[in-house]
Amino acid sequence: MSFSSNSKHSLLEEMPTRTCCKKALLMGILTYSSVFSREKIKYVTEIKPAAETVISLLDELYGIKSNLYITERKNSREDTESKEAVNSYKITVAGKKEISKMSADLKKNSVSLYRVNSEIFDKKCGRCASYFMRGAFIASGTVSRPQSSFHLEISTPFKNLASDTVELCREAGFSPRTALRNSSNVIYFKKCDDIADFLAFIGANTASFDYINESIVRESRGLANRAVNCDTANIKKTVNAATETMTAIKYLKDNDLMEKLPPDLKKTAELRYENPQASLVELAEMSAQKLTKSGVNHRLKKIIEIYEKYKRGTTN
């Protein structure tokens, strides 16, 4: 079973208790279903609990008896390991008279029902919007496994419904992106934190925690990589500096120029020459004057400056 299917199954395990939230959940599913009009309703899903929920809520809330058709087909989805046959559940309600039982809760003054009808939300409840979005995700949403990529989307062929949904998300504090893919209007999130928050908002807490955990893992891995890169860069920098210093000292020795160095620089040059692998801290501890690390570094830089002056003088 895919990560999306698992998430949807978990969303259907806990049903709302308030009537307003039940209506919001049902409307979220129907609004994003294949057909939702005053003459016909058709909802198709591979998730049995989703089909059972629609049938149950239509009956409980409106006294509507629906038709259920079950077909079996080969599983060709790439996001599942199993290739066994899967069931497809098609729910239909036909006839104006039957659907008119919902008329009090259908969007007024609109031919199309493919809109977010926030009039059914109880302003005192505060949960209706999240249940509507839960229904929309169950009907037409997908979410990737966090270990592979960060992507959650809900799609619809209806532009007005997409706009309404984006506005509903923004009212809830989310900022989804939108895109037109073929004939579908896609509402999507690409950031891990945004997906985790949205999943928590609609009640998919386990999936939300999976995204949070993956974010922590990736952040920890990134910090470790940055630390390794930083250590590598520092080692490389240290090696380059030591090589440059040893080149300068060797040049001064080979050209009998060590005696021309000031006594303090000569002692430090000899100390470095005799201990080529030592760090600056170790050289400071070995120095007779008990220099600091910065003191040793300063003297070595002066030695390099003197070397460069001699080098320029001999080449000229």
Task: Give a structural overview.
Helix 2 runs parallel beside helix 5 and helix 8 crosses helix 9. The longest helix has 50 residues, at 205-254. The protein has helices at residues 3-11, 19-31, 48-62, 96-99, 128-140, 159-171, 192-202, 205-254, 263-274, 280-286, 293-315; strands at 35-36, 40-45, 67-73, 86-94, 141-143, 152-156, 177-181, 184-189. It is built from eleven helices and eight strands. 54% of the residues lie in helices and 14% in strands. The chain has 316 residues and is of the alpha+beta class. The strands form two sheets. Strands 1-2-4-3 form a four-stranded antiparallel sheet. The protein has a four-stranded antiparallel sheet with strand order 5-6-8-7. It folds into two domains: 3-101 and 111-203, Homing endonucleases (Endonuclease I-creI); 228-315, no CATH class.
Q: List the domain count as a whole number.
A: 2
Which range best describes the helical content: under 10%, 10-25%, 25-40%, 40-55%, 55-70% or over 70%? 40-55%
CATH class descriptor name of the largest domain: Alpha Beta
CATH topology of the largest domain: Endonuclease I-creI
Structural class: alpha+beta
- Biggest sheet, spatial arrangement of strands: 1-2-4-3
Number of strands: 8
What's the helix and strand layout?
Blueprint: H1 3-11, H2 19-31, E1 35-36, E2 40-45, H3 48-62, E3 67-73, E4 86-94, H4 96-99, H5 128-140, E5 141-143, E6 152-156, H6 159-171, E7 177-181, E8 184-189, H7 192-202, H8 205-254, H9 263-274, H10 280-286, H11 293-315
Antiparallel strand pairs: 1-2, 2-4, 3-4, 5-6, 6-8, 7-8
